Amino acid sequence: MKRPITGVAAVSALALTLAACSSGGGGTDEETPGGDGADYAGETLTVWVMEGTNPDSDAFFDEVGAAFEEKTGATLDVQMQPWASAHDKFITSIAGGTVPDVAEVGTTWTPEFAEVGALVDLTDRIAEAGLDGDLVGGLQEAGTYDGGLYGMPWYAGVRAMIYNTEIFEAAGITEPPTSWDDLLAAVEAIKTSQPDVIPFPVSGDSQYGLYPWVWGAGGELAEQDGDTWASTIASPEAVEGIEFYTDLALEHGSSTAAATTWNEANALEAFQQGDVGMIVSGSWTPAKIEQDNPELFAKLGAFPFPGKDGDVAGSFLGGSHLGIFEESDNQDLAWEFVQMMSTGEFAQKWAEQSGYFSGQASLVEAQSEAADPLQQAFATQMLEGGRSLPVTPAFGKVQGAKTVETMLQSILSGSASAQEAAETAAASMDETFASAAG
Amino acid sequence: MSSSTADVAQHATPPTTPGPTPARRGALRRPPSWRRAQHRRPWLLLSPGLLLLAVLLGFPLVRVVQLSFQDYGLRELARGEDNYVGLENYREILTSSFLWQTVLPNTVGFAVVCVVLTMLVGTAVAVFLNTLPRTWRTLCLTAVMIAWAVPAVTGTYVYVWLFDPLNGLVSTVLTDVGLIDRGAVNWFAERFSFYAIATLNVVQHGFPFVAVTVLSGLMTVPRELYEAAQIDGASAWRRFRSLTVPILKPVFAVCTILSTIWDFKVFTQIYLMPGGNGGNPDVYNLGVWSYIESFAQGRYGMGSAIAVLLTVILLLITVVYMRTLFSEEEL
After folding, report:
1. How many inter-chain contacts (A to B, CB under 8 Å) are there?
2. Do both A353 and A209 map to the same domain?
3. Is a pLDDT exceeding 90 seen at residue A11?
4. pLDDT digit string, tens, across residues A129-146
5. Chain B nearest CA to A409, separation (Å)
6. Which domain holds residue A326?
7. Predicted complex ipTM
């Protein structure tokens, strides 16, 4: 038993020595002629990245760190941050002056941090590098504040519908719904054929599940008039969308009372138990299902949100920017890193590994052509119906106040009609817009 | 037998320690400068603790009060500026119907129910534990302490799962019995049932402290008193009311005040329940309101003002309660 182990150990020790030699030798060889690699030698770039996007982020950033060191000579210090506490952490470190050089910033936060002067305006750098023609529109729009682009589009995700093909087949549905009428028919078919199945739960604690119906009816959340914003969530079109969505639960028995307080994670949990027909799901979710529940993954289908009359309805295009902080002493080095992450090889690899779409339009198109039918549905949703939320820091406060979720829950629990609840929400939004402007 | 001898031994100890009288007499004979130094000494010894408290408690307290007079948002925070608006925040809070119709009734009603239940359950458990033989008492105490040791977050999730409308134990049992349809009732969506669940959670988490504190009080009450009362023919209830309650009054007072403070500022147990994180404004209490205003809305001034209001209410309640419970000499 002993011998092979010693043998292996000896061989690996030898390999390690060789590797050490060769890497040391390679380093000196490269530094002398290029000069490029020594530019930032000895410096360290601190980067915050959100946890959980890429299941194997350690390996990814080891690779990036090596490539970055080779290119610039600087060391990369990547610190993973959990999404849940990231906003608080950003704010306290902006206030305390302890920000990193570069950070992944959620698209809805970018204007907020730009407004307080924490982020660097990247417009000129992006134009200089010739990257401005190839950015994903929704991400560019979301990162623009006061005419400047404060976040380099990195990756994007979008929500669409996923469904359980077994339940659809048992209900005799052959084609995924492409209009509101189709959807209602599908709900009815599932309900009659499988009474124990929840056809399509309407989750009360999820704003992003509602927007596609508002947009699909031709409604908007808010409109800008000069410097001020006004809510349009109580407009007839928007209310029609809200009514359709909530009536699925209240009139058509598509949902369950339990879903009144569900968020997306709760809906996904129920879906994974196998007795839910379809749910609203992020493009990053199938990868998670594949990991948790391969059996269900085999039965998974996806389709874009149907608009009222059969077009693709809008869906919030979320994702992340890479932002450089104003307080960073190393903004040129930071930009090197941002470019490396958001373009070419590493951008593509990140998107592939994480189940998101790249922030570069050309890469997304390539991705959607190569993708399986499941990801194709999400790609269609993104390219044909990717929408951004009202781009104002005040909308972050609307989200913080859970104005839309409150509206949904009050309709679903029966304490207000869609019209009443929408008017309350619009008043609350307008108040937030006004206080943010003042 | 052995435990009662131990009790007697315990009570015998205090009088044997030398009283303060000789020391005081000695101090009188010392020169005045010595007395001044002696007055200073306790403060000297206290100073590290006081300094720590000043940094950890005093500064945040002052800062919160300062912030409550400002319109303080992310912009001010990032730039380190002040933006005083006087009493504007307080005016907005005190004139809003939301405070009077939703937040205050939720906070006060919930706290009153929780404190009463916590005290009742805690005292009952303590009296019960006091009657047990040593081994069983230790066993039961351990079990009770485990409930106390469970972090609030964990405890809350246990209740959220128990009452999950679709898969929770409660809904499954009620469905099997035929009382409700699976998933048809959502207890988290209604204000009353929401707080009923929160009450269960908070009382379960709060009673062990009361039980342990009251038990330690009970164990110091000399058995002879009860024996004497028993010989006089006092019933168990009478013995409890006329002996235990008066003797343990200070213990009850401390427990009630601490429970009141804890139950007024409950945050985790509400915020983590479905709908409790802002989605359902009907279930806001002062703590959640303050948090949402500060950290979700970025209105730190407003959030601070609510926090100050909560502190003032707590101070008032504590003072009034202490006054009614004790006459001045007793304090």
Report:
1. 95
2. no
3. no
4. 988 888 888 888 889 988
5. 7
6. 41-157+318-370
7. 0.71
